[in-house]
Every structure is written in structure tokens, then in C-alpha cells.
Queue: 3 jobs
Job 1
Amino acid sequence: MARSLDGLVLAPVADQAPGQVGTRTRFHYHERDGEIWAAYAGGDVVRGHLVGTRAGDRLDFRYVQLKQDGTTSSGHCVSTVVDLPDGRVRLEEDWRWESQAGSGTSVVEQIDGSDALPGV
């Protein structure tokens, strides 16, 4: 099993569609006893939260976010946790909106915590 996500900061490796998570978004992860949660913000996202579970290297969570335009959206994501050769962590994600149409895949990777967003 890949290492714990607790205390890690992750960021997308590529931008998604406008109004969604992008390379300027920072996810601050926490993990305890099979539970995972994170706060995130940056780019088009003013504030977002995710909460779910971890079983082995599989995460299953729901997310909700407030965007710069004042709208909210929510969805479901299943991710695989991967240990990278350089010691960092990657999440390979399959997500779908529940509040609107759309689905896709994304990749987020661990970054240096000094690049974190304040207040997240």
C-alpha cells in the first residue's frame, strides 16, 4: 500500500475545463483510520472540500466546491494512490459531476508544502 496522504499537499498536473480545478489549485490532505478528507482552493475554485474513505490504494470520495463566479458544484471521485519513483505520491482519478453533466480523469501529484495556499 502507498504511504499515508496525511499532511500532504497535492496539485493537478494539467488544467481541466474552465471553472474547474486546475494547476493553481492546491489540495491539503488528511487521513486517519481509513478516512480521508481535504480542503482545496486556487484558480477558479474559491473553496472546496472532499471527504471519503481509503481501502488499500483506492480512495472513494465526494467533493463540493464554490467557484469564483459564485456557483457551487459537487461530484464523486475514485482515485488510485501511486508511489512515484522520486518518493512523491500521485493520485490517478476518475471523477463525475453529480450536480451537473460531465465526467473525466485527472492526475494530482504531491508538491512541496511551501507552495501551499494560505488558509486552506
Job 2
Amino acid sequence: MNDTELRQAIAMMESYKERVEALSRQVQVLRVSLDEVSMASEALKAFKDAKEGDEILVPTGASTFIPVKVSGNRKVIVGIGSNISVEKDVSESVDYMDANSTEISEALKKSVEALNEAQNALTTITATVQQEYSQRQQAASTQ
């Protein structure tokens, strides 16, 4: 490997490092989103199955729940993105959360696959660069 190829390999290694970091952040965000949607979905299902007057726990985030008594109103305000919320009945809300969960799960799966590919490529290029440095050190020490 000549000096130009080594510099290109190092640049590629840095590029893969940045990609791995970005994908790691993306995976983290998707996992948090999936947890949030799952918690909301469970609360909606409890609300859907509850009878008027029953007490259920409503998650507020950070592993905190508020006990509330269920009224006859079966409407739910659901955020649909871009700070827009709509009123849906509880069954529609459960379906929406399930679809949202499926979408996030698929995105998470693809992101994890891309992360694994980038990590494998980074490992390969790093090993190549380290091997070249070792060979150059050995050659320099024998001279």
C-alpha cells in the first residue's frame, strides 16, 4: 500500500467512524420512540378495556404513572407529527399506535442492519490500516 492509498484508507476509516456514530444515535432515538409508543399503546389498551369508573394508570414519562378513573368519554387526543394532534376514538388510537409501532420497528431493524454493516466495514478498514502501520514500523526498524 502506497502513501496515497494509506491516506485514502484513513479517510475512509474516519468516514465509517462518523457513520457508525450517526447510526448509533439514530438507533438510540428509534429505541426510545418505540418504548414511548409501546407505553402509550399499553395505556390505550387498558383504557379501551376499562369500564366507566375503573381506575387505570396513565404513563406520563420517566417511569411515572398517574392513577385516573375512566369516564364515559372514549376520545383520545393523538399526536400525528409536526405538533399536530387529532381527536380519535380509543379503538382508532390503538390501531394508530400499533401501526406507528410497526413503522418504528421496521426503521429500527433497518438502522441496526446498517449500523452492523458500517461497524463491520470499519473493523475491516481499521485492521487494514493497522496492518499497514505495523508493516511500515517493522520495515523502518530493520533498516
Job 3
Amino acid sequence: MDNHITHGLQLLSYDKIYTTSIRPKLEAIDIFLKENTAPFNVYEVAHILEIDTDEVNTLIQNLNITHIHLADFFSIVFNASSEICKLLSRQWQYSNVHVYTPEMIAEIYKLNIHKVRLAFADLGIDQITDMQLDHIFKRIHLTVF
């Protein structure tokens, strides 16, 4: 591999990626929902969900939404195209689950199942709670540019 290419590669734990990229987006959505009252503004919803206002308007029309209330907000989330919306949709599938298997974690966070299984094996466990996710994430390393 050329040196100029290898200088741009980094090996990061998924915990770092989650902490710097995903968690702030989830927290921003949480704060948005706590600090704003329905009906929510289309432009603000688009911004917080990282989608175009055209996409929000199309979803509003397709889902027969007149004003964006809390339930409508989540209908938009579950149908929107942004990565954060897709992640929230995958998480929602497991909303009634109290423990997670490697397969669930790999699916929710779109991680390599082999890396997730190795992280579980490293900890000597076969399931975790959401409070233990950081222990798994710290053991999963991804190459980023």
C-alpha cells in the first residue's frame, strides 16, 4: 500500500466513533423533543434528523400528517433516509428487549458480526444490557480514513 494512503488510515474503537458521532446526534434529538412543543416545525425536524425539508414534506404527505406531533415525529424518523433515523428504527425493533445478543448489536449498529462476537467472547459473556454497551464498543475496532 502507498505511504500516502496509509497515513490517512486510523484504527478507532467503536466507542470513540459512537461517542463523537452517534451519541451527540441522539442527545440532540432528545433535547429537541424535550425543549420544543408540538406541532414541530418542518425545517427544525429536517435539521435535527439530518434530512432535506423536501424529504420531510414528502413523508408528511405520504403518511397523511397534517401537523408534526410526537407520534408523527417518530413516524417520520422510521421512514426517513438519514443514518441516524435508520439507527433509531433498528433500535426501536428491540425496544422491549432487556438484554442484547451479539447478533442484535451487530444489526442495530451495522457492525461486523465477527468483531461483535469476539468482543463478547473477550468479556466472557453471551448477552449484555444497554448499560454495558460501552464495554463491547471499546473492544470493536474499525478502520477509518
